[in-house]
Specification:
mainly alpha; single chain; 16 helices
Length: 350
């Protein structure tokens, strides 16, 4: 990325938290556009049964082979659909739509289904990639454009398979995973819950609610001072809060939160942003994602309970704005996924 483009984006950062502009949207869209059909570098999460399964990323995952790994490709697709919906005049609109139509064709999605249907791939992308896939499904279904509705129909069989996987897996998970990386249980259920509500899938809601309560209701005093771990890109404390906010009734949630995160009720609560020492390191740059994760969960809380938690808005903005420059810093280690995180933080800020 040349200096002039970076300077424009940096100047715009101060207004990002107020309203996402078309110019900023074009900058953020340029990242998943660049990698959506870029096959290499690629990190496959594949289990090999025999030599016949050694195939290229595009052959294995014709829908989601770009952007380094499967889940990053999925939320790269979500980012573009989100931006197309919000900005009808988005640059490269027709090119983006064509790329989406190629990647999410019926045949390509069927190939993804066949891969995930292998007995030895039942845990593939569980639950992080599953969660993002259902967010992509929701975005397509709520986009009233013919091409989006067609793609939603193409993707639906894969989403249905993922829902089946959730329902099969959740009762088996005896203990939650509270890390700040891909396997975090709470984050893995948030977008799934949103889609279950949108699609009026009462049974899916039941599984998510009952298992979330089983796994998290008795948690108290989340150790905020333990965050961050060295390569977190999700906030263990706030992702759990975000999930419980969804599945509990309002009064029940507030009672739970007073025990789980009493410090959030403090009008003077401060929390230092996560700092990155080397953004060319694909793991260390995760900490920029952590700042976005904290921001989107705080915004979600503030929007639902503005009187109780409006004082947290400045803190959320600080976290959002701190890591925004890294989204377009030219390092592929962050560029291939951070735009999605920034956009979700913006989405929650509303």
């Amino acid at each position: 990325m040349n200096y002039f483009k970076y300077l424009i984006f940096f100047i715009c950062i101060s207004s990002f938290s107020q309203e996402l502009s078309l110019e900023q949207a074009n900058h953020l869209a340029s990242l998943p556009i660049k990698c959506l059909q870029q096959e290499y570098p690629n990190k496959l999460g594949q289990m090999l049964i025999d030599s016949t399964e050694i195939q290229s990323p595009k052959k294995l995952h014709p829908s989601f082979y770009g952007c380094f790994d499967w889940h990053s490709s999925v939320h790269g697709h979500w980012s573009l659909v989100f931006l197309l919906k919000k900005f009808p005049n988005l640059a490269q609109r027709e090119s983006i739509i064509k790329k989406l139509q190629v990647n999410l064709s019926k045949d390509n999605v069927q190939a993804e289904i066949e891969y995930l249907s292998k007995k030895h791939e039942k845990s593939f992308e569980r639950t992080y990639g599953w969660n993002w896939l259902l967010k992509l499904q929701l975005e397509l279904e709520t986009y009233n454009e013919p091409f989006a509705q067609e793609l939603a129909q193409n993707l639906k069989p894969l989403s249905n398979l993922i829902i089946e996987r959730y329902i099969e897996f959740l009762p088996k998970l005896l203990y939650p995973i509270r890390v700040g990386t891909h396997s975090n249980t709470a984050f893995g259920l948030t977008f799934a819950w949103d889609y279950a509500v949108h699609s009026n899938n009462v049974n899916f809601q039941k599984y998510i609610r009952e298992n979330s309560i089983r796994l998290f209701l008795n948690d108290v005093n989340c150790p905020f001072n333990w965050e961050p771990s060295g390569t977190d890109f999700l906030s263990p404390c706030l992702e759990e809060m975000g999930l419980m906010q969804r599945v509990l009734q309002q009064d029940d949630f507030i009672r739970w939160l007073k025990k789980f995160a009493p410090q959030l009720f403090n009008k003077k609560f401060k929390w230092e942003v996560a700092k990155v020492s080397d953004r060319t390191d694909g793991h260390l740059v995760h900490l920029d994602g952590l700042n976005f994760s904290r921001a989107w969960n705080l915004y979600h809380l503030i929007n639902s309970y503005p009187k109780q938690f409006g004082h947290l808005k400045a803190l959320a903005d600080v976290h959002l704005n701190f890591s925004l420059p890294s989204v377009v810093d030219g390092n592929y280690e962050g560029e291939h996924w951070l735009a999605s995180f920034a956009l979700h933080a913006y989405e929650e800020r509303k």
